[in-house]
Amino acid sequence: MNFTRRHLTFAASLLLLGAAATASADTLDTIKQRKKVLIAVDIGAPPYGFLDSDAKQAGSDVEAARMLAKDLGVELEIVPVSGPNRVPFLLSKKADLVMASFSITDERKKVIDFSEPYGVVPIVVAGPKAATLKGFADLSGKNVAVTRGTTSDQELSRGIKEVSGVTVVRYEDDATTNTAVATGQQDYMAAAPSVVPAVKKANPARDIDIKFVMKSFPYGVGLRKDDAALKSWVDGWVKTNLKNGRFNEIYKRHFGMSLPEEMLK
């Protein structure tokens, strides 16, 4: 009797797992039947997502999400998210996909899937436009502003380990770092490229430009695991729009630089 019950319980578990996998695999059909795709975007993370002067949603991820919906032939509903709730919104099915500067990491891949990368989060060193600065070695003898404990701080520290004469000035938040460069306390900074326009806007006389990329972190479209049909479609869509230059066009408009050459092949 116990043997039969165990087998019945096991069989029921398999049925439940099969039903869950089928439900997941049907997401693409669900989107098409609904005639709308729900895409999570962080609207508070310029230049990926923000509200423009007319209070309309804008940014590189917003444009990419609109392009995806159009190519899929459905309406778009943007689901606003923040960094911490991107995964929960996806797993709870509040969103079909996540396009929110979603860096591809091994830790995240344990619980969700990612498409092929469609962009990179670069960490750069910026400085006066007239200055020649091609790599970490050229920072010798210079002061560099950075926000303490950030990825920029980590990559700068790693890059200058063997370079003598570099003074790193660490600030407690991005706003203070930006102000230090805008007011001329430091000429160089390590940061995300999105902050460079903010420094220029604060003080147009400070002609700050991106000098070199320290490191780039690829980001992709977040999907629920085992959503094979949707992942296959999104992967193909990403590859097509990298090759035809549409993603690079969006990226250059918002970041002022091109995607890495190897992504465009």
UniProtKB/TrEMBL annotation:
A Pfam entry, by short name: SBP_bac_3
PANTHER family the UniProt entry points to: ARGININE-BINDING EXTRACELLULAR PROTEIN ARTP (PTHR35936:SF17), MEMBRANE-BOUND LYTIC MUREIN TRANSGLYCOSYLASE F (PTHR35936)
Signal peptide as annotated in the record: 1-25
Keyword Protein biosynthesis: no
Domain Solute-binding protein family 3/N-terminal: 36-258
Superkingdom, taxonomy of origin: Bacteria
UniProtKB keywords: Signal
Family annotation (SMART domains): PBPb
Protein's name in the database: Transporter substrate-binding domain-containing protein
